[in-house]
Predict the structure.
Amino acid sequence: MENRQSWRQRLYIIIFETSTPAAQRFDNWLLVAILASLVVVMLDSIERFHNQYADVFGALEWFFTALFAIEYGLRLYSSPKPMRYAFSFFGLVDLLAVLPAILALMFADAQYLMIVRVIRMIRIFRVLKLRQYLTQANFLLVALRGSKQKIVVFLVSVSTLVTVFGALMYVIEGPANGFTSIPTGIYWAVVTLTTVGFGDITPKTPIGQMLATMVMITGYSIIAVPTGIFTAELANAMRQDGLMEHDCPHCRKNRHEYSAAFCSRCGGPLFSRQAEPSSKAHSTPETD
């Protein structure tokens, strides 16, 4: 029982950790296998290669699928809490590396879903221990959380605009000019407001063209709004990271720059000076 437990623990360290040479080698070879499987899927999608090497690509895909299935089973076996791992983010991603091959038995084109294995390349951050990149990514997450409400308000406003513009264009142009319904008009308004301009539906009447001009100008006016919101929150998150947690003893303002000696709000000193012992103050013995 102890040998089995120790083997399971050693397997856990190799598969889930990066602290040992064996674990690092395992992760490196896993990344190589993921990259190789992605290359096979992409080459198989090219018709010329598929016609010539269909059998080879099929055998390689099943080889990688079996390899990833064994790895997934070992992860479940060595994990202290298999169900928690199975429903975790990486557990679901590992399952997606195997599932498309099973779906390919029922749907021929499902094999190209194996491209989702690219998500497993996220493990490279853990292998290379790129903590500085993860720290920078944390700034993005903080900025996204901080700008969430503003972006929601912006999206609601834009949704209202495209609904109004789409309905107006349906009334002005009508089915004769391609605007067969209000949803079609909304689709046109979204394409025009975002300055994509597919050109599959275009206004023909002068009033409709005037409205389209207004939509284009409005699009240029508001397209930079979410970028500005996110940039402001990102700058604030990076600025807050460069501040120290220290309350001003006078106005209780928190967070100041590391080099600050005085409060940026009230101007009072942040640190009280401690009296240094004077070299001249020495006690001398009394003389009789």
The two ends are 86 Å apart (CA to CA).
